[in-house]
Amino acid sequence: MRDVVRQELVARQLEEQIAGRFAVGRRLRVLDVGMGRGAQALRLARAGHQVTGVEQDAAMLASAREALAGEPEGIRERMRVVEGDGRDTGVHFLPGSFDVVLCHGVLMNVEEPDALLAGLARMLAPGGLLSLLVPNGDARAMRAGLSGDWAGALAGFETGPYRLRKLTATLAGIGAPLHTWYGVRVFTDTAAAEAAVPDDPETLLLVEERAGRTDPYRGVAALLHLCGYRG
């Protein structure tokens, strides 16, 4: 359930940002760094965009390529999968090569995330969208506390990475200032890993979608989805 909520909400939020920023029907150049199994990359390719996915994990690459192989020819032609490290985008691509750059669930696994972000910002064409998905450092105590893990909740109050204020400053510093942010998984983050998706998930998704854009709920979401635009 948690992964379904994450993928669906991020997809809807991306669609909202793209529709509000770019001309209707424009085919965008998209870079997905740390694409994983390619869920968001495939959605965007199906929507008609030209997508390049970068991934270094062999198992994830195999899953992404398998998923792509099952798509119609037109979609396969619009999506390219590159084996590589997201910190090496400058090796593979020229600055300003993309209209949209995604970096979802990657920063927490990188030793120098600010350097990675600066490199991703350089990949953006003027006016381009940078989409980040990170753990919400301002809500680290929430899940542990709701689960009765009091020691974990206490530790969660300590200063941690990926707080909204710091990320806002970082995005401004790399020339892609924050435009909009969302919370992802406000209510469902405490669901068990094996929890099944409801037969009719739309009401659940609508609740999470609304909470993710509404204060104070979005401030305690498990994940932050930040959207910045290059000036």
TrEMBL record:
<dbReference type="GO" id="GO:0008757">
    <property type="term" value="F:S-adenosylmethionine-dependent methyltransferase activity"/>
</dbReference>
<dbReference type="InterPro" id="IPR013216">
    <property type="entry name" value="Methyltransf_11"/>
</dbReference>
<keyword id="KW-0489">Methyltransferase</keyword>
<protein>
    <submittedName>
        <fullName>Methyltransferase</fullName>
    </submittedName>
</protein>
<feature type="domain" description="Methyltransferase type 11">
    <location>
        <begin position="31"/>
        <end position="131"/>
    </location>
</feature>
<dbReference type="InterPro" id="IPR029063">
    <property type="entry name" value="SAM-dependent_MTases_sf"/>
</dbReference>
<dbReference type="GO" id="GO:0017000">
    <property type="term" value="P:antibiotic biosynthetic process"/>
</dbReference>
<dbReference type="Pfam" id="PF08241">
    <property type="entry name" value="Methyltransf_11"/>
</dbReference>
<keyword id="KW-0808">Transferase</keyword>
<dbReference type="GO" id="GO:0032259">
    <property type="term" value="P:methylation"/>
</dbReference>
